């Protein structure tokens, strides 16, 4: 087990040996620590850190403040751990980094590892899906909520985007495996992050419809329309309107509902009778559409023959 755990999503907190530890001292010292923890695999030049956190001061003064902050961090964590673990930081005359030998876990670190696994390419495998599930559960709030430093805002948006990408993948996975309730839960999380995310509204419209909840799908559309108008002053895109019309007429094609019909893995529970009836219903709709298309073609041919 790691000697200490650091939580950076929502509120900054540190735990070690089952106890909550002091979180540095606040101010620039705590900010410096969080920056190094988020980029724990990187090494930074001292001048870079001095200029970044004390850029309003002269070069000599900013270097002095950096030295004092590093000393305070060492003092705090030496007092917390005594001789039980390596030093928190690796510091040289030129550079600073988190000591790679320290037993350290961060929620942001695990979160980014799951995303790196996803970026390897190809369809997500079972291991990747499980990592993403665990990662989105770690996202209990935005990065360092309440902080407004420029570098925090940049990292916050970057991690928000990663969160939404992973939720998209999980929603698609749940849809393909007919786990509609799980998919809707991930959709709610995405909309909590960005209520005007039209792509997610479309995904949830499909999931409601697939599960047999046509009314829920129509309500999701109404919610999408209201939020887009209230927050952005815009109307839904054409693709959303077309999906709404297909659902309203009970004609949403299965090809639009489930773009990835990969079989569920071994051991997956059989879908409920209700879910199977819903799937049969959508399949029948598709057959009816094909029949109607053939009827239209015949009528067009007859009209041409009459005109000739």
How would you sum up this structure in a few lines?
The protein is α+β, with helices and mostly antiparallel strands. It has helices at residues 27-38, 46-53, 59-81, 107-118, 126-138, 150-176, 180-193, 198-210, 214-232, 238-248, 254-257, 273-307, and strands spanning 4-7, 13-16, 19-21, 44-45, 89-91, 95-98, 104-106.
What would your notes on this structure say?
The protein contains twelve helices and seven strands. Strands 3-2-1-7 form a four-stranded mixed beta sheet. A three-stranded antiparallel beta sheet has the order 4-6-5. The N and C termini lie far apart (84 Å). 27% of the residues are buried. Strand 5 (89-91) and strand 6 (95-98) form a beta hairpin. The radius of gyration is 27 Å and the shape is elongated. Among the domains are: 4-106, Arc Repressor Mutant, subunit A (Orthogonal Bundle), CATH 1.10.10.10; 183-252 and 270-292, Tetratricopeptide repeat domain (Serine Threonine Protein Phosphatase 5, Tetratricopeptide repeat, Alpha Horseshoe). The longest helix is centred in the C-terminal third of the chain and has 35 residues, at 273-307. It is of the alpha+beta class and 308 residues long. Helix 7 (180-193) runs antiparallel to helix 8.
